[in-house]
Amino acid sequence: MCDQTFLAVVFGPCDKCSKEKPLRAVYIKSEQLSYCSLCVEMMATEGLHENETLASLKTEAESLKGKLEEERAKLHDVELHQVAERVEALGQFVMKTRRTLKGHGNKVLCMDWCKDKRRIVSSSQDGKVIVWDSFTTNKEHAVTMPCTWVMACAYAPSGCAIACGGLDNKCSVYPLTFDKNENMAAKKKSVAMHTNYLSACSFTNSDMQILTASGDGTCALWDVESGQLLQSFHGHGADVLCLDLAPSETGNTFVSGGCDKKAMVWDMRSGQCIQSFETHDSDINSVRYYPSGDAFASGSDDATCRLYDLRADREVAIYSKESIIFGASSVDFSLSGRLLFAGYNDYTINVWDVLKGSRVSILFGHENRVSTLRVSPDGTAFCSGSWDHTLRIWA
Amino acid sequence: MAQAPADPGSAEAADPEESSPNMIVYRKMICEQPVALSCFSRDLSSLDKYADEIEDIITRMQDDKTGGVPIRTVKSFLSKIPSVVTGADIVQWLMKNLSIEDPGEAIHLGSLIAAQGYVFPISDHVLTLKDDGTFYRFQAPYFWPSNCWEPENTDYAIYLCKRTMQNKARLELADYEAENLARLQRAFARKWEFIFMQAEAQVKIDRKKDKTERKILDSQERAFWDVHRPVPGCVNTTEMDIRKCRRMKNPQKVKKSVYGVTEESQPQSPVHMPSQPVRKTTKEDFRKQITFLNLQIDRHCLKMSKVAESLIAYTEQYVEYDPFITPAEPSNPWISDDAALWDIEMSKEPSQQRVKRWGFSMDEVLKDPVGRDQFLRFLESEFSSENLRFWLAVQDLKKQPLQDVTTRVEEIWQEFLAPGAQSAINLDSHSYEKTSQNVKDPGRYTYEDAQEHIYKLMKSDSYARFLRSNAYQDLLLAKKKGKSLASKRLTGLMQSS
C-alpha cells in the first residue's frame, strides 16, 4: 500500500465570525488563529490598515507635529510687542467701581450683558439667577433654579429671555415676563442635555439657537424651540470650561477652552475642529475673541493670559507677571481691542495693554475670587462678578 | 545637627544658640511627620499650581542663605517670642524678590499667602498681612494646604476642648470659638466623653514637649484651624471651585485626623463627583490627529510681522470708539449718571462718528441697524436692493426655529432664485446649480454658498457705491436737508474725486 497524504481539515467555530465552518490556520502577529475561508479572504483585502500599529501611528503624529512647529516657526519673524514699540503708550487709567450689585446670597459664578447696554443677568452658587438694570441697580427678575452651582447664564439677543444651567447638566431658557403675576419658572424650557455639568452657554445671533459647553468634554448647538441637537463638537480631552462666538456677521465659528489645556476653534456647520492651540500649562478658564475676530485671548489656572492669532495659527503674546500666581478666571477685551481685562482668583482685576504686553492697571475691590468678567456691548464699562456675592460695574 | 545659621540680615538676633531652636523646631517637625507627607507626594496637577508657587515663595523666604527674611527670637516683657518675622520684612522681601513696585500689591499678595495659611500673625485669628512691626510666623509644612486637609468636626472639637484645659491666658477661647465649642458639645453630646479623653491625651503629649517648641507648635496649630474654621466674616480659602474638585489628587478624600483619631467611614462628600475614566488614545484617534495635522501643515498662514501690523491697525482705527481710551461724548453714563449717550444712540439721527464707522467695512454697516437701513434705502433708490435683501433673508433664515426652516427656504427660493423670481439675484451658473441641489434638502445652510457669493459681490459693488453716494456723504459731513448751493458744489467735487 502506498502512503496516502491526508489534508487534515479542522471543522469548528471561526475565530472571527463564530460560524461553524471548515477552518484554516492563519498567523496574525505571531499568534495562530483559525479563520473560515470567507474571513481569510476579507482579511487579505483589508490589507494596508493592518500594517499600522498604534506605535507607528503615534510616531507619525509626533513627526507631523514637529514638522508643523517647524513650518510655523519660519513665519515667526518678530514679536508683537516689538512691532508695538512704535505705538503710543497708554495714559494713566482711573477705573473705579461705579455700581455695586448686592443681592446674591452666595458666590456669583457667571454674568452676561443685555444688548441694551445696561441690563445684566447673573447666576450664583445658591441656584439664584437675577436680572438687574445695573444702571439703577434695581433687580428686575429673579428665578431659583432647582440645582446649585449655576455656572452659566446668558442673555438672549432680543432681551426677552435668559438661559442658564449648571450642576443639573442642562441649559434651560426662561422667557422674561413683565407681568408681575406670572411666575418666571412656569414658562421654563429645557433645551440642552449634557451628561455632566454645564460650564458655559451662549445664544448665537438669534433667540432660537444656543451653544453650550459641558464638563462632559463636548460643546453642542441646540434649537431652542424643539430642544433638538443641531450639531455636537467632540475633540476636547477633558471638561470644556468656556466658549465664545466669533463676532462676524457672516461667521460660523466659535472657540472653546478646556481642562485639557487646549483652545479649539470650531466650524459650526460641520462640527469639525478647524484650529487647535495648546500652549497653556493648565486649565483654560476663559476664552474671548479679539473684536476683529482674527484673534482670541485666553485666561488660565497657570496665572497667565495669552493671545492667539488665527491667521498666524499660533500664540502671539503672553500676559503674565512674577507676582501674579493665582489663576485667571475670566477675560474680555475693550472695544478697540487695545485693553484686556482679566479677573483673577487673587480677588484682583489686571488690565493689560494687548499690543505692548505690559500691565496697565491693577484693580482691587472684590473680597474674594473674581469668577466672571464681561465688557458691556458698547464698551462703556465692564462688569465683574465674584465669590464675595457681589457684582461690580467698573468704568 | 544644631547649626547656627549664618544670618547677616538680622541685626538684632539673639545670640546664635537662641536662634537655633527655630531651625531645630522646623527640621524636627518635618522629621516627625514623615508618614503624613509621604502619603501626599508633590502633585503637579493644575489645581496646585498656585500652591506650588506659594510654597516655593515661602521656602525661598525662609532660606537665610539666599537673602530670606530675618527670622528671630524677640525678647518680650517677661519671655521670649521665638521664631518670628515682622510684616514689614515680609512685604519688603516680596517687593524685592517678585519685582513688585507697589507696596499695596505686595501687601495684598502677602495677605493671600497668609489667608491660605502659609504664614500667620502670632496674635490674631484673622489671617492678613500688615506692613508694620506686627510679628508673623511660618506654618509647618505638615499643616500646609497642599496636604489635602479636610479636618473633621471631631478634630475641631478635640482642639477646642484641649484649649480649655490649658490654663494660659493667651490660649483663652475667642468668642466665636466659644460659640463653636458650645455648638459642637450639643452636636456630639453622645460621644463627648471620647472627645474629652482625646483632648486630655493631646494635652499630655503637648506637656512633654520643650517650652519654646510648644509655643511655636501651639501657634501653628491655631493658625491651621484659623484656615479651616475661619473667623466669621473672613474668607474661607479652603472653598473649592466645584468644576475642579473631582480631579483633585485625593478624590476619595481619605479623611485623616489631625489628632490620629480613627473615624468610622465617612459618607462620600456630594461635592466629589466620580471622575471620568481616562480614555486611552486609539488608532482612530491617531488617524484623526494625523489628518488634522496634515490640514494644518497645508494651511496658508501669515507672518508675525503682518499679523502684528493688522492687529495694531485695527486698534488704531477703533481707538476713538473705545470709551476706556477716548472718553465718550457727551459723557460716559456710568461715570456721569446721565444716560444721554444712550438716548442719542437710540435716535434715528446717527452721529458723524457712527456714520464714519460704516466706512470701515461692510460688516460695520450690516451690524448697525441704522446703517443697514440707510444702505438698503440707498440700494432701493437705485433699484438694486435684491442682493442685500437676499443676504438679509438668508441671515434671517438661520435665526429661525428648526420647524420653520423648510418654509422659509421655499419662500426665499421663490422670491430670489426661482425662474421668473420677483427679486432675482445674479448668481453664476455654478453657484446656482449647487443651490438648486441644496434646496432639495432644505436646511439652515441651504443658501450658504449663494450668500457668500452675494456678500463678495456687494462688497465690491453695492457697498463701494454706497460710500460714494450723496446719502452717505451727507450723513458723514453732517449736512442737514435743504443745503445751500455752495455745499452742493462741494458734494459734486467729492463725488468726482
TrEMBL record, chain A:
It comes from Anser brachyrhynchus (Pink-footed goose). InterPro entries: G-protein_beta_1-5, WD40/YVTN_repeat-like_dom_sf, WD40_G-protein_beta-like, WD40_PAC1, WD40_repeat_CS, WD40_repeat_dom_sf, WD40_rpt. Belongs to the WD repeat G protein beta family. One of its GO terms (biological process) is light adaption. It comes from the Eukaryota. PANTHER family: GUANINE NUCLEOTIDE-BINDING PROTEIN BETA G PROTEIN BETA. WD repeats lie at residues 101-133, 191-232, 233-276, 277-318, 330-362, 363-395. One of its GO terms (cellular component) is parallel fiber to Purkinje cell synapse. This is G protein subunit beta 5.
